[in-house]
Amino acid sequence: MGGNYEVMSPWAEVDPVPLEGINPRLADLNGMRVGLFQNGKVAAGPIMDAVEAELHARFDGIRTPRFGRTANLEVAETTDRARYEQWVREVDAVIHAVGD
Amino acid sequence: MYDAVFTERLQRPAVALVNAGFALDARSAASGKGMPGVRVVSETVPCECTEPSRIVAGVRAAMDDLVTALTAPLTAEEGSPPPREADGVSGIVFAGDLGEVQQFFYRRGWTDGLPIVPPTEAAVEEMLTGTDLPRDHVVGKMIPRLGKVTVEKIAVNAVMAGALPTYMPLLIAGVDALLDPKAAFGTFEVSTGSWAPFWIVNGPIREQLHVNSGQGALSPGDIANAAIGRAMGLIVKNLGGARKGLEDMGVQGNPGKYTMVVGENEEAIPGWEPLHVQHGFPRSDSCLTVSFPNSYLQIWPYGSDDKGILRAVMANMVPRWRQLTLLLPPGHAQTLADAGWTKRELASYLYEYARVPAYRTPEFWGTPGMQRIRPPLNAEDAAPLLRGPDSLRVVVSGGAGAFMGMAYGSSTWVTKPVTLPAGWERLVRKYRGLVPTHLRY
Question: In chain A, which residues have their Cβ closer than 8 Å to the Cβ of B105?
């Protein structure tokens, strides 16, 4: 394998994205409103049914309002955005069903 | 995953419950959005599962982790992520002999598994003669990583793929096509459905670049068909950051992702509109069209007349994706044209009459992904195999023989014009003599 090659990178530069931390967690789930977000995939609804049942079995007074995405796009990019923002204001945390 | 990031930005703690096979993909997505610490909980419910007992079992197994993700205090890194380290994206990144270069690129995950042509500065400079755009011109940002698709980076990946400088206008048009929201590239590039970009070249550039539209056009052996698709695949991987098993979650994968490029034989049937003309461009323009099939089927006709050709097409259409690129060899195209068919009439006819009993369609059975389609009422109702008359394109390609090609997808076709640099004819003359001369035996 003779010869010497100085080679350029094929990997893209990205604009610096300021990294953000996540929000503090809840101290306890008893009495909390834990929103359940479904992404529209077929198993998301039944999975959230099971999550909901488990949460109610484990925690007193927990509430689990649902939100379902109506398009196969991130919710912030759809007409659901305002409705979603309002829904999020009314919960203490959100569990997202993601992927397939 | 982007929704979970959005929730965190709305000042609420979020947890993503993800099938274990998608955990890496989820983390890449969150990181790409600038929030690497979003908590991800893996579950083992089979993908697209509809059986309650298996769903409940999978969720129960993940519940302790889910509760912990909602309640455990943040680590310092989760609350305030450290800055990313630079990952060596510009300038010269390595020096070595040919074998060492191959290993370096392969270890970095920058190849498609095949050896690459070393992208030296000299080779990239030569590649850049294929465009008048400045090397730092940003054609766009490509998801999921939002990598900046500069002309220089296109050229680097083009060199690696073995492309010629004359392919640069097509590669830039290809990036334009992928970044067009109508292409839904963000979905198809990483989907479990393993959709592969299918590139169709129209206009004078076909002949100038020797893009094969004839015998075995989709088989290996033509540098244009091979390198254009390969370069686009490397661009998607290295500039968009869609890597197999990390962000590209295709279940089976698709050989079309190596390359799937064909020219249309526009001259075969003078009365038929070439694909780019159907899409509103002048016949004299050079254009590139992309769509995302995930399956490719080859069939032969049930008779040599127009009826035999159409019967075979209708009998072999798959009741699922409902978008079809039909590749007709010139012989069949001529037969159909002689019988008075136009491309648009063929599409309308096949939409109208290519039907199956409803029980053969996924929506009748409530198959995953089809719940939003209102199901037929009766099992024997006739259900169309196309989404509509605009969901089929006829493209004349291929050589002698009877086989037709059917590329199935669920996307649409996006066509972009090709912008040629000054001195194009001179550039074409420089490279057009590069053709194989096969020994006869």
Answer: 7, 10
Characterize the bridge pairing of strands B404-409 and B323-328: antiparallel
Task: Quickly state the pLDDT bin for B1 (edges 50, 70, 90).
Answer: confident
pLDDT in tens, B417-427: 999 999 999 99
Radius of gyration for the alpha carbons in chain A, expressed in angstroms and rounded = 21
φ/ψ (deg, to 5) at B5: -60, -45
Closest by CA to B349, choosing from B408, B403, B291, B389, is B389
ipTM of the complex model: 0.92
A20 touches chain B (CB under 8 A): yes
Domain ranges of chain A: 36-96
Cis peptide before B81 (omega within 30 of 0): no
SS3 content of chain B, % helix, strand, coil (to 5): 40, 15, 45
Q: Please report residues of B whose CB lies closer than 8 A to that of A63.
A: none
- Which residues 251-270 in chain B show a CB within 8 A of chain A? none
Asked whether B277 and B227 are in contact (CB, 8 A), the reply is no
d(CA B349, CA B327): 16
Selecting from B37, B45, B249 the residue whose C-beta is nearest the C-beta of A22 gives: B37
Overall average pLDDT of the B246-254 stretch: 93
Chain A residues within 8 A of B100 when measuring between CB atoms: 1
Model confidence band, residue B361 (pLDDT cutoffs 50, 70, 90)? confident
Residue B371, pLDDT > 60, answer no
| Contact (CB<8Å) A22/B60 | no
Residue B219 and residue B259: Cα distance in Å, rounded? 10
pLDDT per position as a tens digit, B37-73: 999 999 888 888 888 899 999 999 999 999 999 999 9
Contact state of B35 with A3 under an 8 Å Cβ cutoff: no
